[in-house]
Every structure is written in structure tokens, then in C-alpha cells.
Design brief:
- It is elongated, with a radius of gyration of 27 Å.
- It is α/β, with parallel strands linked by helices and 479 residues long.
- The protein folds into three domains: 108 residues, no CATH class; 95 residues, Beta-Lactamase; 236 residues, P-loop containing nucleotide triphosphate hydrolases (Rossmann fold, 3-Layer(aba) Sandwich), CATH 3.40.50.
Length: 479
């Protein structure tokens, strides 16, 4: 992983190369001359809500870029690693104050504080993204090129007035993120998955694949992991549904959480895994580590993409196979999306009960069909009936999560797989959410209800000494 010293050194080098792409290299501290009316390499106008200096022809981003370049030349790379983050921030503030005085930039106190804060974020953090990352209410940050930054808050997507200097500036931030986890992104490898220190998931894709400039997506998780009581308070499920799910995890039922993108599958998986007894050995396997298990005996594994030569890739399937040799009591897969599904099913059916995973599907029935498709896509040829028998014997429950039009997330169905009838996998629904309408403010009307069916696994739950609430399966609708 790159240290702060390495990151600053790389940024210093790349900034010198890309600061003025359409102008000759400046000598000394002189500014390069441009003919009257020539296009400036910086954005022509700042986004709404961004301060612009009052000096004639001044531009906030041009001013910030110039100070950033000067600051990088003043930083002593050999001494910064001996400083604490607080000391480094103080040192940067002092240097910036000197640079602003030397450049005689006309600023009031508010403008000066804004400029100094932004430049500290450039050096020590992720630049313009820092204010968004500091806002705990923001669950997703979507950067569509350097001009357009959107966020999701409270289930709603909105535009912000945050922007980057240019595509090169955004590329430096992306490189800073991916280099922290030992990955790379360039024209030879224009896609990358990474994570931030707080566990937030990061995806980046750059030209030539992204036609309108670099694209960055950050999916954040709560600083304090959500618990089942939080989902009940958010009306994602009812107390009865929560009680059942907790019991199913404790008695080692194999569960698949199904849903679309952004529905909260990983969040629910993390909450369900919290019900695993702390005495058990848990192995988690993910493409990008996101799960935040609170137990002590947890082994976290993460896949590795191929290097620039196309070698060194470690797939999910290889990690699943290896995990079986690690004496796991539980295997938790972040998501099944490829050939690892067959190894997962075999593990669930041969002594590794209580495994959990997620899958992209719109309904529980679609989830079963997708499991079949993934096995076929993995190049494994099994008769249809034999494959469905393996699935029905391995998976015990499917939990469907849906994101509704008002941004709320609901567990819309809990279904138990009961076996085979002919060549069809049979299921029975235990709980469901039925949408009944929409309120004037756009919020969704609906209710949760048990279907009146008792699960076949009731006897197993009772044998573990767990008593479910009386009447929890009675078909009574709740808001």
C-alpha cells in the first residue's frame, strides 16, 4: 500500500506533468503566457455555490491548483512521515498561509478558511469528496465526470455543487484510492474495485471505457454497523420476521439474500451474520471486503484481479475451495455471480450448514433460476433435475429485499424451500409485504403479513431450545 509520502510524491510528479497540458512548461515561478482569448485549460466556470475570487479573471479552481502545486514543492517528504495527522494539518495550514501571503491573493477570512480546508483535503484526504464522506447521512456518492457529483441520502438521489478541477484531478483522486489497497487503474486496466479505510465500497471506470470522463462510485456503510432493531425501526421488516430470521441463522439454515442493486443485500447479510454464535469459526469471501462482522473468530478473504500481464488472478471459486480446508463452521459469501456457485452448493450440502450469501434477482423464483444459470455459465454440465435437486437440498430459505419507489427498503418475501415436485423446486412463503398504494408525498403504502404457513424447520428450531413467539405466523397485517 502506498504511504502518504509516496502518494504526495506521485501526485507532485503527475501534477507537474498535467497542470497545464496545453501550455509550455513554466520556468522558475513564472506563469506561462497565453495569447489573448486563448482557451484556459481549467473549467470555464465554477459550479453553483462555489466561491470565485473577486480578482479580475480569477477562478477558484485555477487559484487552488496553483497553490496546490506551490505547496507540493514546499513539503519536505522526508519529515512528514514523522508527523502525526494533527501536526501535519497544522504544518500544512502554516505553509498555505505563507503561500497566500506571498501570492497576495485578496481573500476574506471565510474565503481563506475555505481554500485552506480544501487544500488540506487534497493532501491528506480525497479532495472535494471529503465533505461528502464526512456527512453520515450520505449512503452513496456518484461522480459522473469531474463536473457532476450526485449523492444518495435517505433513499433519494440528488445533485450537489461539488466538482473537481478537471478530469486529471479526478484521476488523481481515483488513483489515490485504488493504490491504497494495492490495485491499479490505467488505460491497460481501466476498471478497478477498491475500498476506503472505513469499509466503503469503491468502483472506478475510466476512458476509453467511460466515454464522458472518469466515473467513480462509492457505496458507504454506517460507521456503527446496523443491527436488526435498526431495520425494525426503519420498517424494513416486522419484529416477527426479525425473530424468525435470527432463529434460522442460529439453527444453521442456509440462507440466500436476493435483491437488485442498492436494495441493501450486503447490509442485511451483515446483520444476519451477527446472529452467528461467537464460538463458531467464520470465513468470509468477497470480491471487495465490505462485511463488518463483530465476532472475534473471523477470517476475511478477498479475491485478487489479474495483473497487467494477465497473471496472478485469484477467483472467488478458488477461495471457496480453499476455505473448505480451513475448518470453517460457517462460510459467508459476499455474492455469488459465477462458477463458485457449484462449490458453494456442494459445501452447503456436505457439512457446512448455516452458510449465507447474496444473489442479484428480482424475485425468489428468479433467484432459483439464476442459480441454475450460473452453474451452466461456469461450464458445469448437470441434468436439469439433478441440479434442481442439489439446489433444493442445499438452500433452505430465500429472503427477498426490494427498494421501493420512495427509496425505502423492505423485506418483501421470506420463502422456505420445501423440496421437489416432479422437476420443479417447491417453496412456501412465510411472510410478505403487499404494496397497496402511494401517499401524496410519494411514500409507499403497504403492509407486512404472515401467510399463515408454519415453516417445516419449526421442529429443528425447537430442538435448539429456541421458542418462537406464539401466533407469529398468524396472517395479521401490520404497517
Amino acid at each position: 500500500m502506498a504511504s502518504l509520502k509516496d502518494q504526495i510524491a506521485r501526485w507532485n510528479l503527475s501534477t507537474r506533468r498535467t497542470a497545464l497540458p496545453d501550455a509550455p512548461e513554466p520556468t522558475g515561478s513564472e506563469e506561462p503566457e497565453q495569447p489573448p482569448g486563448a482557451d484556459t485549460p481549467h473549467p470555464p466556470a465554477p459550479a453553483p455555490g462555489i466561491w470565485t475570487p473577486a480578482s479580475p479573471g480569477g477562478d477558484y479552481y485555477a487559484t487552488k491548483m496553483k497553490l496546490h502545486q506551490d505547496l507540493l514543492t514546499r513539503i519536505d517528504l522526508n519529515s512528514i512521515e514523522s508527523l502525526t495527522p494533527e501536526q501535519l494539518r497544522d504544518e500544512l495550514g502554516t505553509l498555505l498561509g505563507e503561500l497566500i501571503e506571498e501570492a497576495a491573493i485578496p481573500l476574506n477570512d471565510q474565503e481563506r478558511a475555505r481554500l485552506v480546508s480544501d487544500l488540506k483535503n487534497e493532501i491528506m484526504g480525497l479532495g472535494p469528496l471529503e465533505p461528502l464522506l464526512a456527512d453520515a447521512s450520505i449512503s452513496e456518492i456518484m461522480v459522473n465526470g469531474y463536473r457532476n457529483v450526485f449523492v444518495e441520502s435517505g433513499g433519494r438521489i440528488r445533485a450537489t455543487d461539488i466538482r473537481f478541477n478537471d478530469d486529471a484531478h479526478l484521476m488523481k483522486i481515483i488513483d489515490k484510492i485504488v493504490s491504497r489497497v494495492g490495485r491499479r487503474i490505467d488505460e491497460y486496466c481501466p476498471m478497478a474495485d477498491a475500498r476506503l479505510p472505513d469499509g466503503a465500497r469503491v468502483n472506478a471506470i475510466i476512458p476509453p471505457l467511460a466515454l464522458d470522463g472518469p466515473i467513480l462510485t462509492i457505496r458507504r456503510f454506517s460507521v456503527v454497523p446496523l443491527r436488526m432493531v435498526d431495520l425494525i425501526r426503519k420498517n424494513t421488516l416486522t419484529p416477527a420476521m426479525a425473530e424468525l430470521l435470527s432463529a434460522l441463522v442460529k439453527v444453521k439454515c442456509n440462507i440466500i439474500v436476493s435483491g437488485g442493486t442498492g436494495t441493501g443485500k450486503t447490509t442485511l447479510l451483515n446483520i444476519l451474520s451477527g446472529c452467528i454464535p461467537s464460538c463458531e469459526r467464520i470465513v468470509t469471501i468477497e470480491d471487495t471486503a465490505e462485511l463488518q462482522l463483530q465476532q472475534e473468530h473471523v477470517i476475511r478473504l478477498e479475491t485478487r484481479p489479474p495483473n497487467i500481464e494477465g497473471k496472478g488472478e485469484i477467483t472467488m471459486r478458488a477461495l471457496v475451495k480453499n476455505s473448505l480446508r480451513m475448518r470453517p463452521d460457517r462460510i459467508v459469501l459476499g455474492e455469488v455471480r459465477s462458477a463458485e456457485v457449484i462449490d458453494m452448493l456442494q459445501a452447503m450440502n456436505t457439512g457446512h450448514e448455516g452458510s449465507l450469501t447474496t444473489i442479484h434477482a428480482n424475485t425468489p423464483r428468479d433467484a432459483l433460476a439464476r442459480l441454475e444459470n450460473l452453474v451452466g455459465m461456469g461450464g458445469i454440465s448437470l441434468p436439469g433435475k439433478a441440479l434442481r435437486q442439489l439446489i433444493s437440498a442445499s438452500i433452505h430459505f430465500i429472503v427477498q429485499v426490494t427498494r421501493l419507489g420512495d427509496g425505502s427498503r423492505k423485506i418483501t418475501s421470506i420463502q422456505e424451500i420445501t423440496g421437489m415436485e416432479g422437476e420443479v423446486i417447491t417453496t412456501q412463503e412465510l411472510f410478505c409485504f403487499r404494496r397497496t398504494g402511494t401517499n401524496p408525498d410519494g411514500s409507499v403504502q403497504g403492509s407486512f403479513s404472515a401467510t399463515g404457513v408454519r415453516p417445516k424447520v419449526s421442529d429443528k428450531i425447537r430442538s435448539y431450545g429456541i421458542s418462537l413467539s406464539e401466533g407469529m405466523f398468524d396472517p395479521v397485517a401490520t404497517g
